[in-house]
Amino acid sequence: MRGRPRAIKPATENGAVQSLERAIAVLRVLANGDGLSLTEVARIAGLAPSTSYRMLSTLQQQGLAEFDDASQLWFVGVETFRIGSAFLRRRKLAERGRSIIQGLMMQTGETANIALAERDGVVFVTQAETHAPIRAFFRPGTRSSYHASGIGKAVLAHMSDARRAAVMAQITYEAYTPHTLVTAQALLADLANVRQSGHAVDDEERNLGMRCIAAPVFNELGEPIGGLSISGPTVRVDESFVAATAPLVIAAAQALTIAIGGVPAMRIGIE
């Protein structure tokens, strides 16, 4: 299964999809307005007031619409900003980082990756693949858990204490390999090393025979929003390779941070 099943009914034959289309239509009306009454929303969207109200109520529950009691008007909700910002970050990271990871791949001879941090893990958005016969490969859109990912651990290590605690509380510590960190205590101990060194290592924690070196990328507020890494087979990415290459990964991540207007962590690799 890729983006959709091989056999799918047209959207008009599916009631659930029709409801989604109506909700999106209402959301677009709100986005183009500056506070609208229920009657105005229904008229512009071409829906019955009762239908419009159901759509608005559902959107309100998800934070996508807001209702002002004083004016009795509907507005687009703050959650739409978060969703839109995630798309912009993803596009910006991939576009600005392409030449950076291409250069890193040429420097190291291993596959270089960029991933974006989400609520439950990281999502790989682009990759510069090495031409070596045995290599790491992450298809764009591939997700990886925070506790079993080099970039995931790099991001976690540089979150605020409160944010890290909230994210870790949601982790299901699945053991992908015998090397996976499967307790919060083990993960926290590793994150302390990541903060001190400035880079994280996925030491066969997600896939046996593969090792990854990663560093975080920061936004304009100095918050980790994703990361950059190189991945390869353990026969090539050994301890000496990690020691020699980690500074290159850190430098590339800092270059990407600057390229997207971010602020590098002042204490990375110093604590």
Number of helices: 8
Helix content: 40-55%
Radius of gyration: 22 Å
**Strand coverage percent:** 15-25%
Give the SSE order as H and E letters: HHHEEHEEEHHHEEEH
- Major sheet, described briefly? 6 strands, antiparallel
The pLDDT mean sits at 88
Overall 3D shape: elongated
Question: How many angstroms separate the termini?
Answer: 45 Å
E-strand count = 8
Poorly predicted segments: 11-15, 267-271
Quickly give the structural class: alpha+beta
Q: Which sequence of strands runs across the widest sheet?
A: 5-4-3-8-7-6
How does this structure look, described?
Residues 11-15 and 267-271 have low confidence and may be disordered. The strands form two sheets. This protein has a six-stranded antiparallel sheet with strand order 5-4-3-8-7-6. A two-stranded antiparallel sheet has the order 1-2. With 271 residues, it is of the alpha+beta class. The radius of gyration is 22 Å and the shape is elongated. It is built from eight helices and eight strands, in the order H-H-H-E-E-H-E-E-E-H-H-H-E-E-E-H.
Task: Provide the fold topology.
Elements: H1 15-32, H2 38-45, H3 49-61, E1 65-68, E2 73-76, H4 78-108, E3 111-117, E4 122-128, E5 143-144, H5 150-157, H6 161-168, H7 184-197, E6 200-203, E7 210-218, E8 224-233, H8 239-259
Helix pairs in contact: 1-2, 1-3, 2-3, 4-8, 5-7
What is the gist of this entry?
With 271 residues, the chain is an alpha+beta fold. The protein contains 8 helices and 8 strands, in the order H-H-H-E-E-H-E-E-E-H-H-H-E-E-E-H.
